[in-house]
Amino acid sequence: MTKKKSISNEKKLACLVAILPVMMDFMEDVKDEYPHLYNRQVKKSGNDFIAEVDKMGYSLNKRVINESDEDLMEFYTQVVNMGTIFRQWLLDL
């Protein structure tokens, strides 16, 4: 029996931090083109989501700037790369 590979929680976190800002951008992009789908509750939830992602991203960036920890820099690099790869993957679909 083949052992199933699992994704580490660190990679899951990096993925969330990388992909959420992309999704945030997409929410901003579609709200004007599809206003009938972007009702008041969706808009409020979207704005709350955007604010939380901004806070998370700001917090991560602040930690990276203020520390010289190689593991943290590697994590930040993974986040940046994942966001870039995700956007490219979507362009290639």
Brief write-up:
With 93 residues, the protein is mainly alpha-helical. The chain has three helices and no strands.
- Largest sheet report: none
N- and C-termini, Cα separation:
34 Å
Q: pLDDT average, as an integer?
A: 80
Question: Which structural category fits the helices and strands?
Answer: mainly alpha
Q: Which regions contain 5 or more consecutive residues with pLDDT less than 50?
A: none
How many alpha or pi helices? Answer: 3
Share of helix among residues? over 70%
How many domains? The number is 1
Radius of gyration over all CA atoms, rounded: 16 Å
Which descriptor suits the 3D outline?
A: globular
- The number of E-state strands comes to 0
Query: What portion of residues belong to β-strands?
Result: under 5%
Order of helices and strands: HHH
Characterize the quaternary organization of these chains.
Answer: single chain
Summarize this structure as a short list of keywords or feature phrases.
mainly alpha; single chain; 3 helices; globular; 93 residues
Structure write-up:
This protein is mainly α. The chain has one domain (20-92). 81% of the residues lie in helices and 0% in strands. The chain has three helices and no strands. The chain has helices at residues 9-33, 40-66, 70-92. Helix 1 (9-33) crosses helix 2 and helix 1 (9-33) crosses helix 3 (70-92). The longest helix is centred in the middle third of the chain and has 27 residues, at 40-66. It is globular. The N and C termini lie far apart (34 Å).
